[in-house]
Specification:
The protein has 85 residues and is mainly alpha-helical. Helices cover 76% and strands 0% of the residues. The protein is globular. This is DUF3243 domain-containing protein.
Length: 85
């Protein structure tokens, strides 16, 4: 099963990557920029595998670039808040 097929697994995967980026000293600004790039890639190249990803994809498709950056930033916050350290 792909990590994209289960929402909780996807969030955990993102959380692990976020932790790694922060441990490497990546700034929040750079993390948010990367999150926007990942979101753009997923929206253009990957078919959503669950309801949550479909909602994000639909929102992304109608959002302006600034709104997409906000969505990406909120996703970063979501996985930060879901990380239990």
């Amino acid at each position: 099963m792909s990590v994209l097929e289960n929402w909780d697994q996807w969030k955990n995967f993102l959380g692990d990557r976020l932790d790694n980026a922060q441990e490497q000293g990546m700034s929040q600004k750079v993390i948010n920029q990367l999150a926007h790039q990942v979101g753009d890639y997923l929206a253009n190249q990957v078919d959503p595998k669950n309801e949550q990803e479909r909602v994000l994809s639909d929102l992304w498709s109608v959002a302006s670039e600034d709104e997409q950056k906000a969505i990406a930033s909120v996703m970063v916050k979501l996985v930060e808040n879901n990380s239990s350290h």
